TrEMBL record:
GO cellular-component term (any): plasma membrane
Principal localisation: membrane
Keyword Repeat on entry: yes
Gene responsible for this protein: Cntn1_1
One Gene Ontology term from the biological process aspect of the record: dendrite self-avoidance
Protein name: CNTN1 protein
Domain Ig-like: 1-35, 41-128
GO MF: cell-cell adhesion mediator activity
UniProt-listed CDD domains: Ig5_Contactin-1
Keywords: Disulfide bond, Glycoprotein, Immunoglobulin domain, Membrane, Repeat
Cell compartments where the protein resides: Membrane
Protein's organism: Alectura lathami
Length: 190
């Protein structure tokens, strides 16, 4: 195929590479520069979120995306406790931390540590649990005669510290109440 593969790159491999293809009709050349990137982990451009919200009984993924070359190894702690993969906690290959079945005990300071052969860095965020949003009154099936009006209700309970938005859709397409104001009407009761 004309491929050149270089394994276990070093800084000495950096430079201009040239591929020459020739046959009885002539010769053509193509050039490319190979740059070797190496840097210790840094969170300057992409720090961890300072506040992470997770719903009670739900699932959260806390991202850890430092800039680093080569790819760093990741570890996590909650406070001073080092975290390991278990039934509810998983550290992904990309450094993200997943927690399922969130409880009040999961609240706290989470720190992601990233380390490669160039150095190490860490970033910290605080996980807070919120009450899960639940639909307490779901819309019911309605039979209506053509030309009449139909009313459907939806009521939900939610964490009082968060805002709640209701989105209605028809056959999988979100209803735009501003464009469809002559056909649909939304009444919000507090």
């Amino acid at each position: 195929k004309g491929e050149l593969r270089i394994q276990s790159l070093t800084f000495e491999d950096a430079g201009m590479y040239q591929c020459i293809a020739e046959n009885t009709h002539g010769v053509i050349y193509a050039n490319a520069e190979l740059k070797i990137v190496a840097s210790p982990p840094t969170f300057e451009l992409n720090p961890m979120k300072k506040k992470i919200l997770a719903a009670k009984g739900g699932r959260v993924i806390i991202e850890c995306k430092p800039k680093a070359a080569p790819k760093p190894k990741f570890s996590w702690s909650k406070g001073t406790e080092l975290l390991v993969n278990g039934s509810r906690i998983r550290i992904w290959d990309d450094g993200s931390l997943e927690i399922i079945n969130i409880t009040k005990l999961d609240e706290g300071r989470y720190t992601c540590f990233a380390e490669n052969n160039r150095g190490k860095a860490n970033s910290t965020g605080v996980l807070e649990m919120t009450e899960a949003t639940r639909i307490t009154l779901a819309p019911l099936n309605v039979d209506v005669t053509v030309g009449e009006n139909a009313t459907m209700q939806c009521i939900a309970s939610h964490d009082p510290t968060l805002d709640l938005t209701f989105i209605w859709s028809l056959n999988g397409f979100v209803i735009d109440f501003e464009k469809e104001h002559e056909h649909y009407e939304r009444n919000v009761m507090v």
